[in-house]
Write a structure and sequence with these properties.
InterPro entries: Cell_wall_metabolism_enzyme, Dup_hybrid_motif, M23ase_b-sheet_dom. It comes from Streptomyces silvisoli. This is M23 family metallopeptidase. The chain has about 325 residues and is of the alpha+beta class. Among the domains are: about 35-85; about 195-310, Glucose Permease (Domain IIA). The protein is about 40% helix and about 15% strand. Strands 1, 2, 3, 4, 5, 6, 7, 8 and 9 form a nine-stranded antiparallel β-sheet that branches. A hairpin with a 5-residue loop joins β4 and β5. It is rod-shaped and about 160 Å long. The N and C termini lie far apart (about 200 Å). The relative contact order is 0.07.
Length: about 325
């Protein structure tokens, strides 16, 4: 009994009826198998497409997203894939693989860095805003202080101008008054009682009275009748303490029986206090004895002379 071999032992692919056998071929008369290149590549592409679809769904599920849905079935896309692969050459490079999505850790790190950058930017903006506000406040305070200083300086300048104007006005008024006084005449005493007059006779005098007496309490101020120069001051015997005031025209005015002499020399003007009423010399009581001697000569009656110069006595 002959041994049986497995059915697949001599099951060789049968020759394609449409393919003739070439006796000259060196294949021992065996049939050549048809090339399966395009079918094998199509199968491979089909497998890759299926794996990519499954992988995309898995990745979406891992990231918490909805699974990727495949709009068409594998049999539907198989002819297109096979056709695309068959039309390509072996020399074409494989298509670039899609960029792998960031994993959860890299995504979290990216968000943290973005948040940190945003917070840093916000902090920098806040610092700049604070510095700007501080600079504006400082500038406003400095401007206010400058205004206060300017107002104070302006007020001081105005006060100084008013003070200077007042001083100038006072000096001008004083100068005008002095000029007026220099040309004017005044009374020798402001409060008095006329007593012995010029030309009277008495046992008190060796001759007639040579002046006009103005009775007043001791210490009453005695004033210059007109502007002039004190040419003599001191003790004069029966005249007591005497001051001689010489006017610009040479007229001498004698102030006698003084208790004290305030001015003993130099220029004086109308109204200046030159001495005080007293009772020195040949007197019976305190009074001012006034003599008027034009040109330094003999005495004349003081009362008409005073009236001639506008002094009411």
């Amino acid at each position: 009994m002959a041994s049986q071999q497995p059915a697949f032992a001599d099951s060789a692919p049968s020759a394609d009826p449409a393919t003739p056998v070439d006796p000259a071929a060196g294949d021992g008369g065996r049939h050549r198998l048809p090339k399966q290149r395009s079918v094998s590549r199509g199968s491979t592409v089909l497998g890759v497409a299926a794996i990519a679809a499954v992988g995309a769904g898995g990745v979406a599920a891992a990231q918490g997203k909805s699974p990727v849905s495949i709009p068409v079935s594998v049999p539907d896309v198989l002819p297109q894939v096979v056709h695309a692969v068959a039309g390509s050459t072996a020399e074409q490079p494989p298509a670039a693989a899609p960029a792998a999505p960031l994993d959860a850790g890299e995504s979290l790190l990216t968000r943290i860095l973005a948040q940190a950058q945003a917070q840093r930017t916000t902090a920098d903006t806040a610092v700049r805003e604070t510095e700007r506000k501080a600079a504006e406040e400082a500038a406003a305070k400095e401007a206010a202080a400058q205004r206060v200083r300017e107002e104070a300086a302006k007020k001081k300048a105005e006060e100084e101008a008013r003070r200077k104007a007042a001083e100038e006005a006072a000096a001008k008024a004083q100068a005008e008054q002095a000029a007026q006084l220099a040309t004017s005449y005044g009374k020798p005493v402001t409060s008095y009682t006329p007593t012995a007059g010029f030309g009277e006779s008495s046992s008190l005098w060796s001759s007639t009275h040579t002046g006009q007496d103005f009775a007043a309490p001791t210490g009453t101020p005695v004033m210059a009748i007109h502007s002039g120069t004190i040419t003599s001051a001191g003790w004069a015997g029966s005249y007591g303490y005497r001051i001689v005031l010489t006017l610009d025209d040479g007229t001498e005015l004698w102030y006698c029986h003084l208790s004290s002499m305030v001015k003993t020399g130099g220029k004086v003007t109308t109204g200046d206090v030159i001495g005080r009423v007293g009772a020195t010399g040949n007197v019976t009581g305190p009074h001012l004895h006034l003599e008027v001697r034009p040109g330094g000569g003999g005495p004349v009656d003081p009362l008409p002379w005073l009236r001639d110069h506008g002094v009411s006595v």
